[in-house]
Design a protein that fits this description.
The protein has about 230 residues and is an alpha+beta fold. The mean pLDDT is about 90. The protein has a five-stranded mixed β-sheet with strand order 4-11-10-8-12. Strand 2 and strand 3 form a beta hairpin. It is about 40% helix and about 25% strand.
């Protein structure tokens, strides 16, 4: 039976592009064995909620996020998440929890995060939902390493993606170990004026939120992005 199936698949895939075949296999798997897709997504969601609880996130905010679980998993299932990207990440806007408390949720070993920015001087240059929400198909900035926020922003727009805001960059650092790999430019936001961008980095192993010039580039910095928000 297996040998016959392989023969049929070879005939079916002959002449097709590799990416077309990979998408077809992924979609077929999703339709025949949906639990193979929704199971890991459900586990990811639950892990993220447990992380927020452990980091002192207000229960009222967590309750709002939990109420979106079925919607989030359904949307993540529909999206073609690129290899190495994160299917979804919960975001707590600074209108719900201020930047100082958001940064306290970022941890590097025993070190708690700290915010150096005046929240009233942080503004977004991308549209985001009101209240707690999720961002989807998240790239942590690795693809933009060594590119200034200004150059990365143009490239990300060409990809039909959007740069992460300060709130979203913090969320990424809460739920991943990205800072152990590289630092995150939050190019979806500006600080004070158009010439500065918030970014999350490590100083002596301690997570910090500060600002950098939009035209500044360094190999260990990269602008993170997402495909959509809801």
């Amino acid at each position: 039976m297996a040998k016959k199936l392989v023969t049929e698949l070879v005939a079916l895939f002959q002449g097709q592009k590799l990416e077309t075949v990979q998408r077809a296999i992924k979609e077929a798997t999703k339709q025949v064995w949906p639990e193979l897709v929704t199971g890991p997504l459900s586990k990811l969601f639950d892990t993220q909620m447990e992380t927020l609880k452990a980091r002192g996130c207000p229960k009222s905010v967590i309750d709002v996020l939990i109420s979106k679980k079925s919607e989030v998993i359904a949307k993540a299932t529909e999206i073609e998440t690129a290899d190495g990207h994160i299917p979804f990440v919960p975001v707590i806007p600074r209108t719900e929890v201020d930047l100082g408390d958001l940064m306290k949720m970022v941890r590097n070993r025993d070190h708690e995060g700290y915010n150096y920015l005046d929240q009233s001087d942080v503004s977004n240059v991308v549209d985001v939902p009101k209240g707690p929400y999720f961002m989807f198909d998240v790239e942590d900035g690795k693809d933009m390493l060594g590119k200034s926020p200004e150059k990365a922003e143009a490239l990300i727009k060409k990809q039909k993606r959007t740069c992460l805001t300060a709130d979203e960059g913090i969320a990424l650092c809460v739920h991943t170990n990205v800072l152990s790999e590289h630092y995150v430019d939050c190019t979806g936001s500006r600080y004070v004026g158009a010439g500065w961008v918030p970014y999350v980095y490590l100083s002596g192993g301690k997570p910090r939120l500060y600002w950098v010039s939009v035209d500044y580039s360094l190999g260990r910095w990269g602008s993170a992005s997402c495909r959509s928000r809801a």
